[in-house]
Amino acid sequence: MNRRCLLTTLAALPAASQLPAQSAPEFRFRSGLVAYSYRRALAAKTLSYEDLIRRVAGWGLDGLDCTVYWFPDTSPAYLASLRKTAFKHAVQIYNAGVRVQLAQPTAELQQAEVDTIRKWVDVADRLGAGHVRVFGGNIPKGATEQQAIAWAAEVLKRGADYAGSRGILLGVENDYGLTIEPGPTAAIVKQAGSPWAGINADTGNIRKDAYRQLEILLPYVTSVHLKSMVSAPDGTKQPADWPRLLHILGASGYQGYVGLEYEGEQPDTDIPRLAAELHAVVRKVSP
Fold this sequence. Notes:
By secondary structure, the chain is of the alpha/beta class. Helix content is 47%, strand content 18%. The chain has one domain (27-285): Divalent-metal-dependent TIM barrel enzymes (TIM Barrel), CATH 3.20.20.
């Protein structure tokens, strides 16, 4: 190489060194546990929410989806104490699951659900949670699916308006009844048209072809439940591919919590194992 070629090559090196490095995509997720996983122990009062926070911390998970059905109290004193316990263990109470059924056919019934949403939004606010999840409920007798979607969207919008005033998102979970399929679930949120309304996407509740059907929910996802089993294209259950699910979610732009929800019969042995798997998967793809 002559002197002129050498100088030209050296001059180009700084520019080349500033080219972006090619690497695998990184997403921003945080791991959590859904309190419903310990529903029997919480209902029997053999496990407290404080105990559950300590378990979540011990497993290295980041947060707790605090299903509120078995709260012993909702007084300011109790909620402050629970929030303090979570903070001292570096666990974020990020979600509150409540028994709200959005699809109601009359103004009075709709107002009752809105009032319930307001109550639990205030509880979530005291706990420091940024998300409340609700349910679509059943299609009222004699109503069409489209009517039920419209009623649910109205309640969701009004509830989300109040939640938004507290800086809290309201997510309808794809579950039973009206929201048993992804299409109507997405339609409720789309019709609500609120920036504070979204979907609590439960990967295990999709009845058929979970990976493909999840894509219907993606534009609206505000929180995620991961289960150990998901549906195959033929509707049968198969072990969930969590890395694949996280890639689908991350590629859609979702950032946030992915909470393990366990529905089996051996929580004391299965949940610690699954929590360790979730911790490892999330840390691998998320900085």
